[in-house]
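Consider the following assembly input.
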Amino acid sequence: MKAGRHFLQIPGPSNVPDRVLRAIDYPTMDHRGPAFADVGRRALDGMKGIFRTEARVVIFPSSGTGAWEAALVNTLSPGDAVLMYETGHFAWLWDRLARNLGLQPESIVGDWRRGADPDAIEARLREDTDHKIKAVCVVHNETSTGSVSPIAEVRRAIDAAGHPALLMVDTISSLGSVDYRHDEWGVDVTISGSQKGLMLPPGLSFNAISEKAWKASQFAGLQKAYWSWAEMEEPNSKGYFPYTPATNLLYGLNEAIDMLNEEGLENVFSRHDRHGQATRAAVEAWGLEVLCARPEDRSGVLTAVLMPEGHSADNFRAVTLDHYDMSLGNGLSKVADRVFRIGHLGDFNDLMLCGTLSGVEMGLRDAGVPYKTGGIGAALEVLGRKWSGQMAEGRDAKSAAAR
Amino acid sequence: MKAGRHFLQIPGPSNVPDRVLRAIDYPTMDHRGPAFADVGRRALDGMKGIFRTEARVVIFPSSGTGAWEAALVNTLSPGDAVLMYETGHFAWLWDRLARNLGLQPESIVGDWRRGADPDAIEARLREDTDHKIKAVCVVHNETSTGSVSPIAEVRRAIDAAGHPALLMVDTISSLGSVDYRHDEWGVDVTISGSQKGLMLPPGLSFNAISEKAWKASQFAGLQKAYWSWAEMEEPNSKGYFPYTPATNLLYGLNEAIDMLNEEGLENVFSRHDRHGQATRAAVEAWGLEVLCARPEDRSGVLTAVLMPEGHSADNFRAVTLDHYDMSLGNGLSKVADRVFRIGHLGDFNDLMLCGTLSGVEMGLRDAGVPYKTGGIGAALEVLGRKWSGQMAEGRDAKSAAAR
Amino acid sequence: MKAGRHFLQIPGPSNVPDRVLRAIDYPTMDHRGPAFADVGRRALDGMKGIFRTEARVVIFPSSGTGAWEAALVNTLSPGDAVLMYETGHFAWLWDRLARNLGLQPESIVGDWRRGADPDAIEARLREDTDHKIKAVCVVHNETSTGSVSPIAEVRRAIDAAGHPALLMVDTISSLGSVDYRHDEWGVDVTISGSQKGLMLPPGLSFNAISEKAWKASQFAGLQKAYWSWAEMEEPNSKGYFPYTPATNLLYGLNEAIDMLNEEGLENVFSRHDRHGQATRAAVEAWGLEVLCARPEDRSGVLTAVLMPEGHSADNFRAVTLDHYDMSLGNGLSKVADRVFRIGHLGDFNDLMLCGTLSGVEMGLRDAGVPYKTGGIGAALEVLGRKWSGQMAEGRDAKSAAAR
Amino acid sequence: MKAGRHFLQIPGPSNVPDRVLRAIDYPTMDHRGPAFADVGRRALDGMKGIFRTEARVVIFPSSGTGAWEAALVNTLSPGDAVLMYETGHFAWLWDRLARNLGLQPESIVGDWRRGADPDAIEARLREDTDHKIKAVCVVHNETSTGSVSPIAEVRRAIDAAGHPALLMVDTISSLGSVDYRHDEWGVDVTISGSQKGLMLPPGLSFNAISEKAWKASQFAGLQKAYWSWAEMEEPNSKGYFPYTPATNLLYGLNEAIDMLNEEGLENVFSRHDRHGQATRAAVEAWGLEVLCARPEDRSGVLTAVLMPEGHSADNFRAVTLDHYDMSLGNGLSKVADRVFRIGHLGDFNDLMLCGTLSGVEMGLRDAGVPYKTGGIGAALEVLGRKWSGQMAEGRDAKSAAAR
């Protein structure tokens, strides 16, 4: 029995707001009845607004992993080459999934400390003169490292190379937290999930689909049934689904979309950005290093922190969980036990962040990790700029959009 | 604004009990943290009890349709022949899904008015002397018709034919409502879903996997990623999942398993059986015909009713929904508009059934369908036998088990 | 472990709708903070609409019993005479409470089978030439008997007698179920509670206060603190309360007021009226007797039924609860074990009523009470009139209003 | 639309835990039916454990104010003298309430900066040689000031004076947060409420009643009805209540009692004590003054902080609410606008406290209040002692119990 509220500061699932929890516990309804059409339509239309697209959106009862699979099996054929950019563990997992589906993924392997490099992508595509590469796959916000990739620039790189590959982007941990624009940025398939910026429990995933991707799907040779976009089209047009949807999570999705729109997406993005800045200020004050080495790629969703040499990140996380009832994210594969991750996404605010950073500071102390005090003070200083007439530093919405 | 409680009398999703709704609205937790192991283990172990198996059970964040796909892609290779038995619409959908996945399904087409015929299966398998057929697929409770197939007899038929095909059974609408025994009946893959007898919202699906099926999975050539059993094994052994599970639905699943065990599975089955009897007594008193023509195949989960010639089942259902706020199931494909379906499954009791049957009787009247009054009286008579010293008629647990 | 939903068919607490249950489980807020003002104002203003008054309404964190006490202690002085009309057990309890507070209640004792008799009240008041009687207290809907008193006629009787006594009316079990008009009917203090027609859990009570009653409160000599109207005035004017209000029940109250207004009060009243008619049709078909002997006084909230001589109502209720998981109301004091009461109020609809009446019919059978079958059929016939072009019989809104 | 969770850091209502919120939204049940007896008994018996008494406990559907009234009207007669000790605003309100009920309260007026002084009480009682004083009333934890009164010492003072007055103690904001022992400390009537240490929404109140108080109640002349203990006795003995109880809040109470017992009352008390220490360390580091001047009286429930001269506490609170979505308590009457109060009670933990103190520090800054940075650091230091081998300073359970 732990008193008080658990601090769920992993980079997703994020804290689910009370409004969403209450929405999902309404009685399940007839998903074929007339009243359901409104639920389905609100969800499908509402997600277009979140993806900033006029194109098709489909919703699967599945984890985000399923939406990765859906993006590939609907557009590609056995043996197709796919260019991935390994920004971190999740990009690597997507590569692996593509291989399991019979594709030929090829990864540009980054150093896990920055977003994807558009120049490297352009260079590789220019070499692919016979257009064997059918898709370029990039993770927008790499959840394992806290690096954001410049999607608009990747689009420009593909175009500059004159290459016809589809652009597929994983926004599982960025949608609803970091500025994202499916149409404006020329993305062909955007993948997302419910349990991060959308503030829902896990169990829903999404594809936003450009007209070009839709056309590709008519010639794609990979086998598919559950993930088939084609089956969605007719029922979706009336607010229904080809098989039983996850009704109660859809109730929650509609509530979450309302909440994001009430706050305003721009405000949501700047809130996340500001929390990222405050967190990094704390990390620097502690004398620790942010994993993401390229300042303009640092994420408003999570901050991955490198542990001082000789100290176990997992031991620190275990101590923090035990002493302060806070869950932090672990380092994955390459950076296992070297890195811990602080989630500052979703339904989150300044004082929750202050509690979170206090927990990190006390956890460092209790775990015997060398650090300097003063992290919270630094964070408080950044948070206060909003009210002191100074604008928060860093990327404003326009420059972020231009990337 | 409708006063009072909606009557959700489709054959699934069923009425979700308050305990389950409250369980799913607890805050989402860290699915990689130590506390989650208990949630995962309770779900995985608890489902073994419900499937009556000692073998592996896997849980997917998906609809039941996904579990159909999982059963096939984990055990079969491109071009494999599969013997299906078309008991109704859902069996037909499974055939179609198998074809979409690159298999060669072949269906024994029934008349949609009874369960699968073990003799027909045996005969077909005897012809398959070179064992091209790799799996026999049967729907236990055909949700479109209300017919139950005799699974133990299908097993005996396969054995009698000396055929090595895997036996796959869809229990999406029977598990937790009709007696089912994965191990005792020698099933290789059992498929199920959350939104029927398990009394949950949709969004979880299941495979129970015999040792033989598990071995087959190591040689199966169909591509798979999301549905891969192999990926489940290691994390499941510790209570975890290979990708983000549908945390909040798992909370509900554990609550539902507790409820089923508190009532006792035998009591749950006899409750459904008794409600099926009472419903059929009402249908007969109204002078209408039960779709399922073979008495011993009639389902305790739902009753499909044939409309009198010249009357629209869908119009009747629309009137009933409008006048009495009750959802009934529609006739699907072959029997569209000819049949309506009364769900009497899940978290359900005598007075809910009486309200349901009253709604049907009033709906028939209001829609101008010819019928005789007295259906409710007949149902009340059947329901009363429990208390009058007379045992309820019909299949007892033993005989059902023996089928 | 009982499957399915309990049938809570006592005449209050009534079935609480899901929307209200979800509303009351939102986090408690600062009842002195700026955001609370809106909650308080919506509740106070909203209740004026329900009471149909422009005058003051106060809300207590208490049961309805507290609002009885509040009405008396705010307006009367030690030793004051009060004229009560004993329509049943609750009117008798109010008399007893008045005595405990140091008043001199005097009751006109009815036969518990009809509403209050305005002529008897007028006659008594005419005798009271020196106006010792300071208040006339009447229960609008007597919950123990199912009789409705004609409040507008009582007002006319008081006026006809030229008597200055205050008119106090208990609407604990009628408000939000039976037409009621505080201002138009000239009531001075209306008493009510949350757990009946307002569809909330118990814990809130109400006084609606005429200008005359308010003035009287300035000279009332009974001691008071918790119940003091005077303390309410200033904080209520801004949406606040003098001491901590029952925050979460107020959330529910606002939701319930919205629901009543969405359905429309007139529709709410006619729904209850129609369910009363259908219930009485069933009772008559069973060959049983409705306790309320005066047809125009029969309640749309509940129906009290006389048991045949020699049969125990409490045994019947126990059997019904055990066999069919339905709670019915018991007979109180004078009619203990002679009467059972069927609640058909609050968040309720046709099929819930059919389930309820089926439970009564089966309970009668199982308990060995002599009855004729056919009650449900009779109820179905009444319920169908709404759709068959025939208007439901009986008092229309206008005639009810005129009473 | 504010993102994230509101910080409700007033000294009650406190943060209601999710388990309690889920408990109160279960369907309302028949409060006269057999299943309710268990709910009622668990609540009544469970509260004995919390009060640490073997004597009677009664539960009212009301705010804590009602329980003050109940304590007085059940034991005293019109005109009785009552000795109050004015530790702050709430003690003063109780005096006022006593006067409104027709008693003759007399207050020893403290300076609002410490608990009650047992010597002053003893001195006054010694003067009262003819025992006109019938009760001594003390507030255990004065919610307006954050001072705890030494109840065991007050008992000893009364005994030392050889005075027969009843000892009545208000524990509305201490029960379930600060060590309290009704029997051991010889209290006659303990008053409490649901919305503080009991972690419930407001709407329930309590009296724990010594045998001496119970006997006094048989001769008490004040009028009473709703608050009558006598009416409770018979129904309570079976788990029922004399009028409709606040069913859903009782569900929550039983859950809250379970939670307190799971954590262990001693652990609950030391948690509050430790949070009080950490808060005061922050206040001191900010260079501000804690209102409670006597160190051993400082509360683990809340900390009242004096604003620097010339600065408005209410403006600071408004800024903090606006900028950081945190509610703090205001200064009441004498100390209005001079004091703000930080609640650290109920369902609360270290990181919630850190968020709270961060909000205070940022609010001071944004409101232009002079302060020194470093409050959070000081708090973190105190919180860390638990894990650094050093015991937390201050009163241990034994010494507190001895007071």
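The longest helix of chain D spans residues 265-285. Ask yourself how this observation constrains the way the partners meet.
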